[in-house]
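Late entry, evening session. Most of the bench is empty. Finally got around to the prediction I had been postponing all week. Sequence below, unchanged from the version circulated by S.P.
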Amino acid sequence: MADHDLPAKDVFLNLPERRLPVLDLDAARDAEQTFRDVFLLYLNDGHHSQTIPANDLGLILLRSQGMLETLAHKDAATRGRIPASTKEEVTMYYAGNFAASVGIRLEAKHNGLIPTSVHDALSTLMDLIEAGASKEDLLAILKKLQSRSIARYRFFLQALEQANISFKAEWGSPFREKRVASLSIQDIRSAIGIMDLEGEDTVQKLELMGDLRLIGVQTNKNKKRSSFEFVSIEGETYKGTLSDDLLGQVDSGVFFKVPTYNVIAEIEETLEINPTTSEEKVTYSLLNIKENK
């Protein structure tokens, strides 16, 4: 640009002062207005960045939803695969974002004037977050949960650790409840360490009533492959492999009639996480079949 195209040295540009709008967030107020539980997630990488890798964000949301599902499926009498109806009851919907490094607003799918499954699940999740890295407080809560819920909480924390972010949660319920809790990245790592030291695993044994539809053993190039299919009285299908003990019984000539109806199956459920893809995988092993007397 030529000199004559530039403003003179003593010329200034005056703009009216405009302040950024105040962040008006109140989960409890919004929950009262919508009759839905509201869950606000604040994700901070320590540099106040307003971006986050899509993989990290997706994993955090997926793990938080999975955590709510296992917390809602908490009674010993309901052990087994989480029914679709339970998952549907605790479904959270994305309802917008806000400026707070990365802020995500979630709302419960269903509204209600009495406490619901998602209300109770969110309350327990907040208990865990509030416990932070306090070993005494965290273990007191974990002892009340099934191993599946413990595993899912560890997976949720690992998703936060992988993203290298601190986490703050604000929960508002339609019943004028409001709770806020946060985890620093150090809290997250310490909580994972506490859970690992306690040796909580991701295996649980299920005892289910239903029908045995299939037991199979195949030998291919000196390698044996086994399989089973079992349908519970709730209509859930379980497929997997035979335990070594049960496979030995089959090899020794023990005969299992299939299909066999109205029996009790002892099944081992293992919840695993792929360290490369971070995907969760549930596998089943049939331990035993017995009559339903």
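Two things to note before I forget:
Helices lie at 27-34, 54-72, 84-89, 117-131, 135-142, 147-163, 185-197, 244-251.
The CA atoms of residues 83 and 213 lie 20 Å apart.
Will write this up properly tomorrow.
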